[in-house]
TrEMBL record:
One of its GO terms (cellular component) is amphisome. This is ZZ-type domain-containing protein. Residues 93-140, 217-238 are annotated as: Disordered. Pfam families: PB1, ZZ. Residues 217-230 have a biased composition (Low complexity). Keywords: Metal-binding, Zinc, Zinc-finger. Residues 145-195 form the ZZ-type domain.
Length: 238
């Protein structure tokens, strides 16, 4: 059985290159491969590249076929002895699809500009009670608080001094404050040593004088009565 193939090589420009040739479709032969080899000979542009074959069914749809069995289905719809085959022209190597005009057009929307940040005009504040977590991350400035002894380790206070806001005479060094000692009261954070004449005395003597001055302050009560006072507060009569 002989069949005529009418081949349309469709280019992107819209023009078609049309060729016709007879094809032997005897049963038992691979006439699909024979048809494809003949097409390669007729169209030099398809000699070394890959291409696909299509036929148009009664509904007007393009149907691809790539085997003898699929080609037989296309031949079953032939009524005039001519099978029309359509081949889209393959894209050459290195070509890229052309982008649409919308994709090529740059965006007209302006990019948001970063807003400049205004400098802070906050006023410096006085010493505040420091939390115990702040003392752990503050480095020591190396200055010695003369005359001040740490009530945690009984050593000198070097760097940052933490003074209790409630207790009359309770200080901690930076290390002991970082250990979480005396957490029941807030602490003042003192970074600069204060000048006190008593600070030039030995630490134990300075603390003794400070304690003595507090006991002698107005309103302080004596821990023991005078040995010369009587029951009513006067001198005993001989």
């Amino acid at each position: 059985m002989s069949l005529t193939l009418k081949v349309f090589l469709e280019s992107a420009s819209g023009s078609n290159e049309i060729r016709r040739f007879p094809l032997n479709t005897t049963a038992g032969t691979d006439f699909f491969t024979a048809a494809k080899e003949k097409i390669r000979q007729l169209y030099p542009a398809l000699a070394h590249g890959h291409f696909s074959l299509y036929w148009q069914d009664p509904d007007g749809d393009r149907v691809a076929f790539s085997s003898t069995e699929e080609m037989k289905d296309a031949m079953a719809h032939v009524s005039d002895g001519v099978l029309r085959v359509y081949i889209p022209e393959p894209m050459e190597t290195g070509e890229t699809p052309v982008k649409s005009q919308q994709e090529q057009k740059p965006s007209d929307k302006p990019k948001p500009q970063p807003q400049p940040q205004e400098p802070s005009h906050s006023q410096p504040q006085g010493p505040k009670p420091a939390s115990h977590s702040q003392g752990q991350n503050t480095e020591s400035n190396g200055q010695v608080h003369v005359g001040v002894t740490c009530d945690g380790c009984e050593g000198p206070v070097i760097g940052i001094r933490y003074k209790c806001c409630v207790c009359p005479d309770f200080d901690l060094c930076q290390t002991c404050e970082g250990k979480g000692l005396h957490t029941e009261h807030d602490m003042f954070k003192i970074t600069q040593p204060r000048v006190n004449p008593l600070n030039f005395l030995p630490p134990h003597l300075g603390r003794y004088i400070n304690r003595y001055m507090r006991e002698m302050a107005p309103g302080a009560s004596s821990s023991s009565s005078s040995p010369n006072s009587g029951p009513n507060g006067g001198a005993d009569s001989q």
